[in-house]
Write a structure and sequence with these properties.
401 residues; Beta-Lactamase; 3 domains; eight-stranded mixed beta sheet; 35% helix; elongated
Length: 401
């Protein structure tokens, strides 16, 4: 970045855009590692034997006895039972195949079946199930198909129902779409037939258990050291910041990294549709929206939570993603003493981000004209950071406004 080029202009010059060009050649995309050994293509020659042995094992297991067993003990018991059944019924499976089948059965009983090894793989960012036979993952920004299979569409649907039930939701033909969050914080979307024509679809966005800081982002080539310093100063000096970008561009990752520079003494209230933020400060209140019940009642949206957050004496309010009329309440918060507030927004560039904020404020039906809205935006927002996903799979900061 040119050192003479202004990064923070006057608020009336919010539309000036600084485009960030990397000073060094971009690093090559990281090669995808081999899949875990647990993920193997089933042998068609032994498929019938596996199906028979699976059915015999499930028929022999007592649900009341296994309900309280830890995973390790259950795996041992299932392996023993499979060995006995294979001998009794003269089914020829070697020890490795029996261990694999035992692992699959335990995953089905306690977890998410064939998805468990993918969820355990820390190199995977996204998991996409397009019916029982097509499973894709994203590694290092690249989509690849993996040799993971479900038995049939019913098997996928059963996993979907287990996920929905774990968060008190229902997913079936009458209610074929659901958003949920797994215990590890992963965000999940489910859509069933007849809306999904090729079978039940599952989309999982995983989040790293280890937070990423600016030093790592610089190492990855996501931003340069001068830009990292600028963003650090912006966060420490309590500028109101919007991180803009497309789906999967790294907006939340960058927001998490910037939040590390918030003083430990500050009271922070976060508002999210699905909890993704990983703030490290001790004084945090985390709020999450609630969908309506099956009877159509009880919905709590982001606007409700932002309004409530203003009554909680926050030093900063951080909104995971602004996507509707809560944009008006966000601007109100930024303009009423809650400096240092942050959020993300879907937009292709910083100029589009300003237009989107204006459109979302109009959704609040407050009767404000375009000039009044733009005045509020200019008064409230100090910095817009644009991030993009590159063709090589990397995520990079490309603009500051």
């Amino acid at each position: 970045m040119n050192d003479t080029m202004p990064v923070f202009g006057k608020r009336s010059q919010l539309s000036d855009i600084t485009t960030i060009k990397p000073a060094n050649p971009l690093p090559p995309a990281i090669a995808a590692p081999e899949m875990m050994t647990r993920i193997t293509e089933p042998s068609s020659a032994r498929h019938d034997d596996v199906v028979i042995l699976r059915g015999l094992c499930l028929a022999r297991l007592d649900a009341t006895e296994i309900a309280g067993l830890p995973a390790e003990r259950l795996t041992t018991e299932v392996e023993r039972l499979l060995s006995d059944l294979a001998t009794e019924h003269r089914i020829q499976l070697n020890a490795r195949e029996q261990r694999q089948l035992a692992s699959e059965l335990v995953d089905d009983m306690l977890g998410l079946g064939p998805l468990e090894p993918l969820l355990d793989d820390e190199t995977i960012n996204d998991i996409m199930v397009n019916g029982p036979e097509r499973v894709f993952v994203e590694r290092a920004g690249k989509l690849v198909q993996v040799p993971v299979r479900f038995r049939d569409s019913t098997h996928v649907a059963n996993i979907c129902q287990r996920i929905a039930a774990s968060v008190g939701r229902r997913v079936d033909e009458a209610s074929p779409m659901v958003d949920a969050r797994l215990k590890d914080g992963s965000r999940i979307n489910i859509i069933l037939p007849p809306l999904a024509l090729d079978g039940p679809c599952i989309s999982i966005r995983k989040f790293s258990k280890k937070g990423i800081d600016f030093a790592q982002l610089v190492k990855f080539g996501s931003l340069s050291e001068p830009i990292a310093r600028v963003l650090e100063i912006a966060a420490r000096c309590r500028l109101n910041i919007i991180v803009s970008g497309g789906t999967g561009s790294g907006k939340t990752t960058l927001l998490n990294a910037m939040s590390r520079f918030i003083d430990l003494s500050e009271r922070i209230v976060t508002v999210e549709d699905a909890a993704e933020l990983q703030l490290q400060q001790p004084h945090i209140v985390r709020l999450e929206t609630r969908p309506q019940s099956l009877e159509g009642r009880g919905e709590i949206n982001q606007r409700d939570l932002v309004r409530n957050a203003l009554r909680m004496r926050p030093d900063r309010i951080i909104i995971g993603e602004v996507r509707g009329p809560e944009a008006f309440d966000m601007l109100q918060a930024m303009n009423t003493g809650h400096d240092g507030s942050m959020s993300t927004i879907h937009a292709n560039n910083t100029r589009d981000a300003l237009s989107r904020i204006e459109n979302m404020v109009q959704m609040a039906s407050m009767g404000l004209g375009a000039k009044a809205i733009r005045t509020q935006v200019v008064s409230a927002v100090n910095l817009i950071v644009q991030v993009e996903r590159q063709r090589d799979g990397g995520r990079r900061v490309t603009q500051l406004t």
